[in-house]
Specification:
Elements (H helix, E strand, L loop, with lengths): L9 H4 L5 H7 L4 H12 L5 H5 L3 H17 L2 H6 L1 H12 L5 H19 L15 H8 L11 H4 L1 H5 L10 H6 L19 H6 L13 H19 L2 H10 L1 H10 L5 H4 L5 H18 L9
Helix pairs in contact: 7-8, 9-18, 14-15, 15-16, 15-18
Length: 297
């Protein structure tokens, strides 16, 4: 869900520039042209005028974000909030950068929670999923994405066919805000943001057409994957951790820590996974009456 721009008026100041213009320019020139247009049309002093990146700056920032998501601490993640917000605001000014804005905006959600987590009140009881209550409070005030229909209505049977709760369709809210064409800068695509190797392993072809962009096929592959992960780990928090960080990584941490629960390995998981798991469970609780442990009977 993209947040409204509050500090700038670029939408009124900039000429309309969308996907058709990007096709004329080509992918290699998008950032240069975007930078030039913002410099030409943004009001003096507007945040986007200073923040709009060129391609090299975006790639460097993207690499930094990915390093922190994969190997950094929650403090490192929180430190990215200000520059990420500036870039999101700049990208939101132009529809052609919608994919970058949507991807970064979801990570901005993680950065904000990572910032407030150290000062939030202790969660009542011994929660099996750290930060679950924090996410539950946050998502309880957030409406479902406007794009949830028709997918939230039509795709639950894909999951029940795999003997899974149909409510797992709401994982797509966290992964893509229910955008079937969503693509991340790191290669994930579709409603459930499948990476290329995972998609291939699950039987989806990437050429000549990317099967991940077919909503039904993407959901079927995600359902098969979740079925396998839940059967392997017999626990929803661990299954979601494996969906995000990879089953090999989760299994290795369980062995190293001689553990059997998500909470026992959470501090050693990537920063992104530590935010992803409680966000997914809180989303399922708000949208489909799950508990932190799993679906209600």
């Amino acid at each position: 869900m993209l947040r409204p721009i509050t500090a700038l008026t670029l939408l009124g100041a900039l000429p309309v520039w969308g996907a058709a213009d990007a096709g004329v320019v080509g992918p290699d020139g998008r950032f240069d042209l975007g930078h030039d247009w913002v410099q030409a049309f943004a009001p003096e002093g507007a945040p986007a005028r200073q923040a709009f990146p060129d391609d090299a700056q975006w790639q460097a920032f993207l690499a930094r974000v990915q390093r922190v998501l994969d190997r950094g601490s929650l403090a490192d993640l929180a430190a990215l909030e200000a520059p990420a917000r500036a870039m999101v605001n700049a990208f939101q000014a132009m529809p052609v950068f919608a994919a970058e804005a949507a991807w970064l905006n979801e990570r901005l959600d993680y950065m904000e929670v990572a910032r407030i987590a150290p000062t939030s009140p202790p969660e009542a009881g011994a929660s099996p999923v750290p930060f679950y209550q924090l996410w539950l409070h946050r998502l309880g005030q957030r409406p479902a994405p406007s794009a949830a229909e028709p997918w939230a209505t039509n795709l639950p049977t894909v999951f029940t066919a795999e003997e899974l709760p149909g409510s797992l369709v709401w994982l797509a809210e966290v992964e893509s805000s229910f955008d079937p064409a969503a693509k991340s800068p790191v290669g994930a695509a579709g409603l459930f943001q499948l990476m290329p190797d995972t998609a291939n392993d699950l039987g989806l072809d990437l050429e000549p057409e990317d099967g991940r962009l077919d909503p039904h096929a993407n959901a079927q592959a995600a359902a098969r994957y979740l079925h396998d992960l839940h059967r392997r780990f017999a626990d929803w928090p661990l299954a979601f951790a494996a969906y995000n960080a990879g089953p090999t990584r989760v299994a290795k941490l369980l062995r190293q820590n001689r553990a059997s629960t998500y909470a026992a390995i959470a501090p050693d998981l990537p920063a992104e996974t530590r935010m992803f798991v409680p966000k997914v469970l809180a989303t399922l609780t708000v949208r489909a009456a799950w508990t932190v442990e799993g679906p209600t009977p």
